[in-house]
C-alpha cells in the first residue's frame, strides 16, 4: 500500500524542484539587482618558510626532544645559537584566483598544497612565516580584513555531534550575522505570486521551498534546500560514538 502524505506535511522536494528552485533564486536576485558577492584573490611573490633543525638531533626521539628543549631555553637567553636552517615550502608564487570559478590545485603529497591554501585564507600555523603580497579584491589582507571573506575547510569535519542539522545551520547563521537577502527575495516572490494568478512551476517550487519547514529562520530554510539536506534536517550530526548523518551530508553541512 502506498504511503499517504499526512495532513500539513510538506510535499517532497525532488531534484527537479531543487534545480528549478536554484534557477528561480538566481532570476529573483537579478530582478532585484542583488549581485552575488565576489572575491578575487591575488598573490604576488608569495613565500612561506619555516625553520628546521639540522644535525643529529633532527629525529624526534626522546633524548633529542629533551636536548632540543634545553637548547631552546638556552637560545632564548642568548646563551647559544640554535642550529636551524630556513626551508621554503612555497617559493615566490604569483597568480590570481578569479571569482565564480572552481580552481583545482594539483600536487604530489607533501608538496605544500595545504600550506598554500592556508596561506591564501590567512590560517597559517604560528611556526610558519609568510612573505609577499596577498590581496582580496585589490586590498591587501591584514588583521582588519573581514573574516567572512575567506575560509579554509579542512578534510576533517568538526561539528557538535549532539546538535541537529537545522540547529547547526541556525547557530552558524546567528554567529555570522546573515543579512536579509533571502527575506527580500522571498517577499518579492510572494508579491508576484499574489498579482499573477496563473500556474508558474518555477514560482511554485520557490514558494514550496521557503514556506514549509519547522524552523522560523528563513535563511536556514534556504540553505537547507540549496545544500539538499531536507531529508536529514532533524537528524543529529553524530560522531564516532553517536550515529548521525552520512559523510557526504556532513561535508555539505561543513561548507
From TrEMBL:
InterPro entries on file: ABC_transporter-like_ATP-bd, P-loop_NTPase
Domain ABC transporter stretches: 91-255
GO function term, MF aspect, one: ATP hydrolysis activity
Protein name: ABC transporter domain-containing protein
Organism expressing this protein natively: Aegilops tauschii subsp. strangulata
Amino acid at each position: 500500500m502506498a504511503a499517504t502524505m499526512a495532513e500539513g506535511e510538506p510535499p517532497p522536494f525532488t531534484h527537479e524542484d531543487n534545480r528549478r528552485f536554484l534557477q528561480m533564486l538566481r532570476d529573483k536576485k537579478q530582478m532585484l539587482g542583488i549581485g552575488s558577492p565576489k572575491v578575487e584573490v591575488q598573490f604576488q611573490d608569495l613565500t612561506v618558510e619555516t625553520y628546521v633543525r639540522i644535525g643529529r638531533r633532527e629525529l624526534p626521539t626522546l633524548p633529542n626532544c629533551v636536548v632540543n628543549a634545553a637548547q631552546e631555553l638556552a637560545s632564548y637567553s642568548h646563551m647559544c645559537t640554535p642550529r636551524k636552517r630556513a626551508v621554503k615550502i612555497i617559493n615566490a608564487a604569483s597568480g590570481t584566483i578569479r571569482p565564480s570559478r572552481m580552481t583545482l590545485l594539483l600536487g604530489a603529497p607533501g608538496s605544500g598544497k595545504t600550506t598554500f591554501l592556508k596561506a591564501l585564507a590567512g590560517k597559517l600555523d604560528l611556526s610558519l612565516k609568510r612573505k609577499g603580497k596577498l590581496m582580496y579584491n585589490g586590498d591587501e589582507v591584514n588583521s582588519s580584513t573581514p573574516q567572512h571573506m575567506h575560509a579554509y575547510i579542512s578534510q576533517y569535519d568538526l561539528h557538535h555531534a549532539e546538535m541537529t542539522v537545522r540547529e547547526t545551520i541556525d547557530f552558524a547563521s546567528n554567529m555570522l550575522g546573515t543579512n536579509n537577502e533571502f527575506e527580500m527575495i522571498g517577499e518579492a516572490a510572494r508579491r508576484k505570486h499574489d498579482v499573477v494568478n496563473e500556474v508558474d512551476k518555477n514560482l511554485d517550487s520557490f514558494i514550496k521551498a521557503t514556506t514549509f519547514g519547522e524552523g522560523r529562520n528563513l535563511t536556514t530554510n534556504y540553505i537547507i534546500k540549496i545544500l539538499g539536506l531536507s531529508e536529514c534536517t532533524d537528524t543529529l550530526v553524530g560522531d564516532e560514538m553517536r550515529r548521525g548523518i552520512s559523510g557526504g551530508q556532513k561535508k555539505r553541512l561543513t561548507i
